[in-house]
Amino acid sequence: MNIKDIVKLPDQILPGTAACPGCGLQLNLRLTLKVLGKRTVIVIPASCTSVIQGIYPGSAFNIVTINTAIETAASLSSGIVAALEVRKIPDVTVLAWAGDGATFDIGLQALSSVAERNENLLYICYDNEAYMNTGIQRSGATPLGAKTTTTPTGKREHKKDIFGIMYSHHIPYIASGCPSFPVDLVEKVKRAKETRGTRFIHLLSPCPPGWGYPSSMTIKVGKLAVETGIWVLYEVIDGSLKFTGLSKMIYEGRVRRKPIQEYLKMQRRFKGITEEDIRLIEEWVETYWDYLKKFT
Fold this sequence. Notes:
Elements: H1 3-8, H2 24-36, E1 40-45, H3 48-52, E2 64-68, H4 73-86, E3 93-99, H5 100-105, H6 108-117, E4 122-127, H7 162-167, E5 173-177, H8 182-193, E6 199-204, H9 208-211, H10 218-227, E7 234-237, E8 240-243, H11 245-251, H12 260-264, H13 275-293
Parallel strand pairs: 1-2, 1-3, 3-4, 4-6, 5-6
Antiparallel strand pairs: 5-7, 7-8
Helix pairs in contact: 2-8, 4-6
């Protein structure tokens, strides 16, 4: 599939959302729903997405949309899967669409339970690396050194290893993506749609107001995340990991990673970051790549 093919796919997001200009979340969701199509039920926990969809009885989404509490995206989706099976309604994708707060932190227990049972649903975490909808508080996905309203001098911990957590559940499909690489993202959503069991996709969602960069620079910020290696594109099918897209080229030595500073300096949340923290981030990137290589 190429860009022209993607553009031709029908949109399931209508004009008039309440998303911020340059919202990485909306780019991710638009691409995802183009692939999944009309026969999709989307479950949205409390998050930015529950705001941008619009206020009842109106909606900017052209699919069945169900809102739920922040900790229950996975469990409610599980119930919908069971109801569709009982009513013998085929060919419907149940999509749990949750932010990093609802995935890494508050909803992790329900996600783990669904994955342990290998429920037939697609869970996508759009990761903007903080609780953006409630005022930019740190989450388990916030990277070291990033300033939030609850870490005003910079977070002291690295991101939680959500890949390792999901891999340990032995689910059939895990992948990562970024809206700056739409073909890579779309191909992974398509593969997930065609797979049965619990599928988990982790999407980087650059956030202009939360990260502190001009709204016109979302695609560039996402590209730099991958080019510097701080975000890795991969997919895991039945336990075997392979790097994809630009990350594959980096892994094979065909492309050199750009300096981490190029990514950090574009974002106000890293303003004033110390040289020691930059060194710690660089070490984390190296360690994370070595860690992922063990699963290939």
